[in-house]
């Protein structure tokens, strides 16, 4: 599985990437902004985007809306990984077309399994 | 000239000070009414006012004896204001017969309100801004005596003390809100680096060589986990108190909430050698079930922490008028009388001298109180007969109509 992770905090990004790379067959690209994520998603094939909700510049929800509006990227599954209040985050994630959301802080031991569950595989 | 110099009435500093009192258009207030009643009685004037002079009107914070429609309107345009002349000069304004007075002979209050004699004392802030006038009005010509003037001045002072006091209270409240927002902001910001640190440590742990000494890694992770719990708890209190966290109210049997709570602490209870007894109940609450269970689990956890081995903790739910009263009764060493209010504040806990593992940071009961208050209920602690403490709280009962 090819994952694109969008996380602006460098340490969290590194931990996330390092946690997910341990899964056999998963490749993980890390970017730090929504703008960069849109460029990469349009240029390279990804199965899923793991999006932080709050990002500097364009936020994650807007990024998701744009991915879904673009035929070339509309098919990529989006999962939010956010520190926002769960009820609110779930509703917002659904509204912009994400398949689900996961709460921060995440546990590196279980995060890959949770992503797999949300993606329905 | 009927009106005072508008430049003086509308001086920005003066209007700012007036608006800062938040008294304009505020409800009738006994504290000010008491002063006008005293003035009317002692001075023997048919009408007395606490009049605040705004840019285009005078607002009566209090009146005694004023006729309708002014009494209900609580304001007049400045065409009807003698008090503006007190504001313009910042000094007392005395009129024996308005009809022959150079300044107010054409003031509309003479015909419309019947103002003939007037004695107005400035309502002046500590900073020197005159907000209005404390005045006495007579419908007949009258020479105001020194004693009457002195009394009106004293009452004007009393009114300004009241104004200043309110200002202090309002500032304290807003400082409290700012502090809570700050706590919320800091807690939220702390979670990102903390999450990064804990995540990185977990990765180190996952790769830790078998057989290596992990004492220090475990210590670091324990501290990190505790810090995260603390930050999360702080954030919860702030979110509940500020109303950011919404309650999902629904009618539920209290017995179900008791069962879930007891199940949640079963392992801890077994380890502590304490029995938990949930009394049967048919009560139904209209509450956020998860939140009520959170409160119960917290109170049960505390009870277990302070209960002697072999004792029993009892948890009950009973109808209490329109509320359901939950109670967790233990046979521990009780809460000292002087700590009963304090323990519901953030970062306050009873010294656990005989207990090495305190665990929390003193936020559990603060969260409980915030949740209970958001439900419109109350929380408290009493003595358990025969020793120990009983923590109780109330949440709304489900009405029969809302039962499924």
User: What's the CATH superfamily of the largest domain in chain B, by name?
Assistant: GAF domain
- CATH superfamily label of chain A: Response regulator
Q: What is the N-to-C order of secondary-structure elements of chain A (H for helix, E for strand)?
A: EHEHEHEHEH
User: Biggest sheet of chain B, open or closed, and with what strands and sense?
Assistant: 6 strands, antiparallel
Radius of gyration of chain A: 13 Å
Structural class from helices and strands of chain A? alpha/beta
The residue-averaged pLDDT of chain A reads: 91
Number of domains of chain B: 3
Oligomer: heterodimer
State the end-to-end distance of chain A. 11 Å
The main sheet of chain A comes to: 5 strands, parallel
The general outline of chain B is: elongated
Mean pLDDT of chain B: 88
Counting DSSP E segments of at least 2 residues, the number of strands of chain A comes to: 5
Named CATH topology of chain A: Rossmann fold
Overall radius of gyration of chain B: 32 Å
Top CATH class of chain A:
Alpha Beta
The CATH architecture of the largest domain in chain B can be named as: 2-Layer Sandwich
How large a portion of the residues of chain B is in β-strands, by DSSP E? 15-25%
The strands making up the biggest β-sheet of chain B line up spatially as 3-2-1-6-5-4
Shape of chain A: globular
């Amino acid at each position: 599985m090819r994952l694109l992770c969008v996380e602006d905090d460098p340490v969290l990004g590194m931990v996330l990437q390092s946690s997910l790379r341990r899964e056999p067959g998963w490749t993980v690209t890390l970017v730090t902004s929504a703008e960069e994520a849109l460029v990469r998603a349009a240029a390279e094939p990804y199965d899923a985007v793991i999006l932080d909700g709050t990002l500097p510049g364009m936020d994650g929800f807007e990024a998701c809306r744009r991915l879904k509006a673009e035929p070339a990227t509309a098919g990529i599954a989006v999962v939010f990984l956010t520190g926002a209040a769960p009820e609110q985050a779930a509703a917002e994630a659904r509204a912009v077309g994400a398949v689900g959301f996961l709460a921060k802080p995440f546990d590196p031991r279980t995060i890959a399994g949770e992503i797999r569950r949300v993606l329905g595989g | 000239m009927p009106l005072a110099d508008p430049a003086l009435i509308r001086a920005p500093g003066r209007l700012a000070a007036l608006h800062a009192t938040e008294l304009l258009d505020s409800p009738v207030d006994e504290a000010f009414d008491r002063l006008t009643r005293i003035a009317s009685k002692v001075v023997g004037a048919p009408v007395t006012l606490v009049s605040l002079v705004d840019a285009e009107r005078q607002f009566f914070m209090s009146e005694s004896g004023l006729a309708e429609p002014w009494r209900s309107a609580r304001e007049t345009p400045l065409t009807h204001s003698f008090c503006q002349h007190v504001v313009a000069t910042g000094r007392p304004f005395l009129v024996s017969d308005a009809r022959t007075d150079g300044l107010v002979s054409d003031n509309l209050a003479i015909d419309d309100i019947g103002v003939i004699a007037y004695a107005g004392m400035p309502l002046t802030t500590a900073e020197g801004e005159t907000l209005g006038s404390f005045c006495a009005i007579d419908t007949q010509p009258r020479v105001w005596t020194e004693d009457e003037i002195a009394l009106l001045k004293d009452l004007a002072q009393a009114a300004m003390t009241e104004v200043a006091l309110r200002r202090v209270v309002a500032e304290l409240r807003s400082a409290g809100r700012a502090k809570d927002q700050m706590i919320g902001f800091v807690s939220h910001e702390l979670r990102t680096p903390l999450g990064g640190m804990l995540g990185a440590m977990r990765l180190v742990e996952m790769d830790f060589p078998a057989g290596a000494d992990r004492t220090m890694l475990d210590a670091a992770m324990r501290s990190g986990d505790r810090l995260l719990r603390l930050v999360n708890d702080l954030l919860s209190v702030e979110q509940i108190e500020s109303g950011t966290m919404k309650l999902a109210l629904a009618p539920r049997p209290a017995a179900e909430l008791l069962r879930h709570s007891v199940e949640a602490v079963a392992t801890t209870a077994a380890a502590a050698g304490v029995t938990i007894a949930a009394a049967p109940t048919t009560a139904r609450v209209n509450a956020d079930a998860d939140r009520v269970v959170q409160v119960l689990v917290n109170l049960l956890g505390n009870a277990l922490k302070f209960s002697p081995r072999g004792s029993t903790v009892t948890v009950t739910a009973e109808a209490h008028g329109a509320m359901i009263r939950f109670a967790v009764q233990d046979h521990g060493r009780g809460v000292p009388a002087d700590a009963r209010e304090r323990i519901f504040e953030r970062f306050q806990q009873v010294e656990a001298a005989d207990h090495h593992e305190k665990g929390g940071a003193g936020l559990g009961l603060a969260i409980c109180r915030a949740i209970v208050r958001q439900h419109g209920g109350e929380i408290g602690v009493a003595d358990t007969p025969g020793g120990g403490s009983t923590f109780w709280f109330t949440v709304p009962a489900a009405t029969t109509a809302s039962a499924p």
